[in-house]
Amino acid sequence: MAFPWPLSFSVQLLFVYTFSLHALSATVTQRVGPTGNRVITVDVNGGGNFRSVQAAVDAVPDNNRVNVTIQISAGYYIEKVVVPATKPYITFQGAGREKTVIEWHDRASDLGPSGQQLRTYRTASVTVFANFFSARNISFKNTAPAPMPGMEGWQAASFRISGDKAYMLGCGFYGAQDTLCDDAGRHYFKDCYIEGSIDFIFGNGRSMYKDCELHSIATRFGSIAAQGRKSSNEKTGFAFVGCRVTGTGPIYVGRALGPYSRIVYAYTYFDDIVAHAGWDNWNHDQNKNKTIFFGIYKCWGPGATSLQGISWAPELDFKSAHPFLAKSFINGRHWIPASDA
User: In the annotation, is 211 catalytic?
Assistant: First the structure.
């Protein structure tokens, strides 16, 4: 910076320092996040701005910089919804978990637009690629029918979250096999109800489930969570804190989808539905026992006894459990509103 008139060295330093502060302030301001609020209403009966949720999402401009609340009135919205990565800061606000439902019926045996069989993660009734997504008081369902009597259900997701820094409050997730695709990013689920049969929470997210009910509808054998951490360098994993495990069994509480899978249950109640030995290292791969991190901390209920005495999925001490007990596991203090924590 050149000055057009003579100044003392100390005054020049003051000018440079002030200029630098203004530049830094401008940079910080650009990174703070969205400015302003917008509300879009959806009513399947025609009383809102749109009749469909997807139409409301489409109305949000790319590279959105505004907090957008999509208020979705009570009703069943039979549609497949996608929130693209270019549309962050969107909230789905329902009228209640039992009142507002988005549902679709794709399953892994179906054919997609290109004529190829759908992979499980592409079956989701609602898919979110955007960062800073949230949902409140709404349910997501996949109603693909069971393939035949006695089977647990098709691979058919109701919800897929692939964006970072997402939180879901008071929401419902309903399906059978592979209900909730917790795919990638940091996520916070609080006071949610998640229902399914096999691996009904799966993926490689870095997520905390707080005060949620995990409800099994398994008829022969089931499993709750399959976590896909691929290496020791990844910070991903599932932490279930203060949850309730209910329904039918027998079920595994966790399966090693990835070779470094991480699943921890803390302060969680288990119905008497937990399978003997409780955990599954996936295809009897004994090598995974050395690299996965499964464990429980101060859990209780009649099913909790089946989770005790397992050398490769131990009862954790406070030091080992502590990283999974607070929102710091997902850096949540920086992006979860205090009123929603």
Answer: no
Can you tell me the distance from the alpha carbon of 133 to that of 245, in angstroms, rounded to the nearest whole number? 26
Under a CB-based contact definition with an 8 Å cutoff, are residues 118 and 142 in contact? no
Tell me the C-alpha distance between 45 and 144, whole Å: 25
Task: Kindly report the number of other CB atoms within 10 A of residue 248's CB atom.
Answer: 15
166 contacts 133 by C-beta, under 8 angstroms: yes
Nearest to 59 by CA among 70, 67, 71: 70
Token pair in block for residue 111: 């054919």
User: What pLDDT, in 10s, does the model give residues 101-157?
Assistant: 999 999 887 666 666 667 888 999 999 999 999 999 999 999 986 665 556 667 899
Q: What is the torsion angle, in degrees rounded to the nearest 10, for the CA atoms of residue 154, residue 158, residue 177 and residue 218? A: -120
Q: Is 285 a residue of the active site?
A: no
Distance, CA of 257 to CA of 200 (rounded, Å): 12
pLDDT in tens, 226-253: 999 999 999 999 999 999 999 998 999 9
Among the listed residues 324, 126, 338, 156, the one whose alpha carbon sits nearest the alpha carbon of residue 243: 324
Catalytic residue among 178, 182, 183, 280: 178
For the chain, the first-to-last Cα distance in angstroms comes to 46
CB neighbours of residue 330 within 10 Å = 25
What are residue 182's DSSP bridge partners?
Answer: 161
- Report the greatest alpha carbon distance in the chain: 90
CATH class belonging to 37-340: mainly beta
CB 109 within 8 A of CB 66: no
CB count within 10 Å of CB 151 equals: 14
Query: pTM, whole model, 2 decimals?
Result: 0.88
Cα four-point dihedral sign 170, 171, 177, 182: negative
- Out of 182, 183, 199, 280, pick the active-site residue: 199
- DSSP output for 282-311: STT-GGGGGT-EEEEES-BSTTGGGGSS-T
Task: Look at the alpha carbons of 134, 179, 252, 279 in this order and tell me if their dihedral is positive or negative.
Answer: negative
User: What contacts 29, CB < 8 A, 6 or more positions away?
Assistant: none
Give CA–CA dist 279/292, Å, rounded. Answer: 11
User: Under DSSP, is residue 239 helix (H, G, I), strand (E, B) or coil?
Assistant: strand
